[in-house]
Design a protein that fits this description.
Layout lengths: L9 E2 L2 E2 H22 L4 E8 L7 E2 L9 E2 L7 E8 L5 E7 L6 H13 L1
Antiparallel strand pairs: 1-2, 3-6, 4-5, 6-7
GO molecular function: N-acylsphingosine amidohydrolase activity
Keywords: Signal
InterPro entries: Ceramidase_alk, NEUT/ALK_ceramidase_N
Amino acid sequence: MEASSSLHFQVSGFSLSKIWLCLFLVLVLQNCSPALSDSPYLVGMGSYDITGPATDVNMMGYANAEQIASRIHFRLKARAFIVAEPNGKRVVFVNLDACMASQLVTIKVLERLKAM
């Protein structure tokens, strides 16, 4: 093994810092559960795979205008977090692993949420 000024560990694609962060968050959430159970807020979260087709998709000029995707490198996720008060007031945060979405998508999502 070569000596270097900084060591980088990889475990199945995860860096050591990400593993420590996940472990820290698990410990914090486990210790917070008694305090959260007395909270007047309702909290929810969800995640959904929004990965599109795996092949034959034009990459719209990224790197090469003629380039066609041949496989999936990363799966894409949509994540939602919601905090609600018992009287019905609520806040929703939605995050997509996507770029170049039109504003029409945002408008239509807001219309559907308001209709609920």
